[in-house]
């Protein structure tokens, strides 16, 4: 196994509202194979892992390591500290995402 932490992949994909079908198409694999990958049953090749990381907006190493904090993913850096201004922007972005999700959920409930 390549030891990719598939729970991270699943969570990031969900946060970005990417469907499993989209990811399978991107990686040029069958949907069932992608589902098996997220379940931890099969591995991806190096090119697919690179594509996966780009689609999720993270460095490849993030997919392997459990100790990296999510805040580092948002800034896409491992070295810099996040300023208070950046933290406020991230919080505002998260708030707007929650609002959009609630709005979408309400629209889906009425359709």
Please mark out the parts with pLDDT under 50 across 5 or more consecutive residues, or reply none. Answer: 75-79
State the CATH class of the largest domain: Mainly Alpha
Return the average pLDDT rounded to an integer.
Answer: 80
Strand content: under 5%
In CATH, the homologous superfamily of the largest domain goes by the name: lambda repressor-like DNA-binding domains
Radius of gyration in whole Å, from Cα?
A: 16 Å
- Record field, number of beta strands: 0
Profile the largest sheet: none
User: Helicity, in percent?
Assistant: 55-70%
Which term fits the overall shape? Answer: flat
CATH topology of the largest domain: 434 Repressor (Amino-terminal Domain)
Structural class: mainly alpha
The total tally of domains equals: 2
Helix tally equals 6
Order of helices and strands: HHHHHH
CATH architecture heading of the largest domain: Orthogonal Bundle
Distance between the termini: 43 Å
Topology:
Blueprint: H1 6-15, H2 20-27, H3 31-38, H4 46-56, H5 70-75, H6 84-110
Helix pairs in contact: 2-3
How would you describe this structure to a colleague?
- The chain is an all-alpha fold and 111 residues long.
- The chain has 6 helices and no strands.
- The N and C termini lie far apart (43 Å).
- The chain folds into 2 domains: 1-67, lambda repressor-like DNA-binding domains (434 Repressor (Amino-terminal Domain)), CATH 1.10.260.40; 81-111.
- Residues 75-79 have low confidence and may be disordered.
- The chain is flat, with a radius of gyration of 16 Å.
- It has helices at 6-15, 20-27, 31-38, 46-56, 70-75, 84-110.
């Amino acid at each position: 196994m390549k030891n990719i932490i598939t729970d991270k992949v699943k969570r990031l994909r969900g946060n970005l509202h990417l469907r499993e079908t989209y990811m399978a198409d991107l990686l040029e694999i069958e949907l069932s194979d992608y589902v098996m990958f997220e379940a931890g049953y099969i591995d991806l090749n190096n090119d697919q892992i690179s594509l996966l990381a780009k689609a999720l907006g993270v460095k490849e190493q993030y997919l392997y390591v459990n100790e990296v904090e999510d805040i580092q993913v948002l800034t896409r850096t491992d070295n810099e500290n996040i300023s208070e201004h950046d933290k406020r922007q991230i919080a505002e972005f998260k708030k707007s995402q929650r609002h959009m999700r609630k709005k979408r959920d309400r629209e889906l409930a009425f359709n």
